Amino acid sequence: MKRLRRGAPLALALSLALISGAFAGNNAGVTFSLSGNGSAANVGPGAPVALEVTATGLDSVKQFRVALKVSDASQFNLEATTISGLGAMQGAFDFLGPLVDIDDPTIVEMAGSELGGSSPGTSGDLTFTVTVTTSASFTTADQATVSFELISLAFDNTASDAFSADDLGDLTMTVNPPISDPVLSATSATDVSADYSAVGSGAGSDGEVEVSVRFADASGAAASGQSIEFSVTNSGSESITIDGAELAAGSSISVNVDSDAGSASILLDAEGGGDAGSTSASVLVSTSADNSEGATQDLSADFSVTWDVPVPAELADFGGSVTPQSEVVLAWAVPSQSNNLGWEVFRSVDNESFDRVGDMVTGEGTLNELRTYEFLDQELPTADFVYYYLRQVDFDGSAARSQTVEVTLASVQVLPTVMSLAQNFPNPFNPETTIRFDIATEASVSVRIFDITGQLVRTLVSDSRAAGSYTELWDGRTDTGVRVGSGVYFYELKAGSFSSMKKMTFVQ
User: What is the pLDDT of residues 451-502, one digit of tens each?
Assistant: First the structure.
């Protein structure tokens, strides 16, 4: 039996002890519900926290007992707990409490019993309020919970119906709950490069791009009926369509879409022939919604879509491979370039929808010499294959796309079974090239570069390597950092008793 901090009239204490007797009464079907949203915000020191409960379906109740439990006894002055709203029943009661449990000081109890009289008790519905008070040290930065541990109802001392915390459901008040914000997030790619649709192709053409978002309110629910604004600016040379409506080059428009189960989207398209320039659409998606404290939050997401004529950029070579570090290295070479600002890399897992990855690889303007470029993709998606293409951007804003290359991503690295040295890539090269080799068993490994006279130019590797596939980058410099001249060079792999040498060409 619980030990209570205060004394109680003997008759009342004996009466209350019987409320939790083993004999069921006629109130087993009573239901309880908590008013409000179950939270109280901005609660400071010495502040009341009220839990208003409606009991439905009472039948001749003359004895009443409640127990509250708080998350931390030091955050409340439980001896100041009060109960109100029992109406005529409360006036007829002798009340005991509040009584704080010595064994568990997070629990406070109050009870009342009509001692004698001919009253039939209270039947029907009843709304009562239990109020706890925070301690003097409690602040608005503190968080706490208050919940009902027990509610017991009885007509007399022979039978009662007791409802535990599990029976009562979620009769819990959260004090100073953490602030929850609404969220607007992109559900489609945010930086898209697409081919123009063929002129006159209409709906369902290849150049269609969906811009979509998801809205969740402060409760985290994917809400319907939220007004989402899509502000679209056409900054290119050709007109585009938005859900079939035309937007001329250099123009802007705003479209409002109501969310459906949290989702909202528009469909963009652009048509162009072989002489069309690049067209870019920037889309700002925005809305406003209240957070859990009722403060309005402005939300937004940015998108960019660019349409190009699918004319391949002039590449001498373009390929990709997986490194031992599970990264993809892309390398390409161009025999010459004109007005080249740089290269953007786009990646896909289905060879249909491509997203831009990484920063632009800087080009070299106008140059009538072979140049090689390289890009390292370090954050790979989970997929069996990835696809890449390059988008060459000129200083005047025009662009052209390369062909697509496929790279196989092995989920488990397969160790090589033989020693081998691959042809460097690219070849010829400037300013750097990649040398790949396989080691079948752990061995002492060296990779060295020689000029055409047999003189050692550079030592790339000189250590022990475990079995695996490796890549090494040569930047066309000697061991002392001096740039080598144009010509033929040889690279040699030695691994244990294995030896192999291949030829490569450096051009300036």
Answer: 998 899 999 999 999 888 888 999 999 999 899 998 999 999 999 999 999 9
Pairing of strands 172-175, 39-40: parallel
Using an 8 Å Cβ cutoff, are 114 and 11 in contact? no
User: Given 3-state DSSP classes, what are the helix, strand and coil percentages for the chain, each rounded to the nearest 5?
Assistant: 5, 55, 40
Burial class (CB within 10 angstroms; exposed 0-12, middle 13-18, buried 19+) of 306:
buried
Q: Rounded distance, CA 102 to CA 277, Å?
A: 81
* Tokens of residue 188, six digits: 């489609």
Phi, psi (5° rounding) for residue 179? Answer: -75, 130
Q: Which domains does the chain have, with CATH numbers?
A: 10-175 (2.60.40.680), 183-308 (2.60.40.10), 317-408 (2.60.40.10), 420-506 (2.60.40.4070)
- DSSP secondary structure string for all residues of 20-56: T-SSB-S-TT-EEEE-TTSEE-S--TT-EEEEEEEEE
Predicted TM-score (pTM) of this structure: 0.47
Helices then strands (H, E): number in the chain? 3, 36
Backbone angles phi, psi at 16, to 5 degrees: -70, -30
- What the block records as the tokens of 268 is 């963009």
**Angstrom distance (rounded) from CA 406 to CA 363:** 23
Express each pLDDT in 431-458 by its tens digit: 889 999 999 999 999 999 999 988 999 9
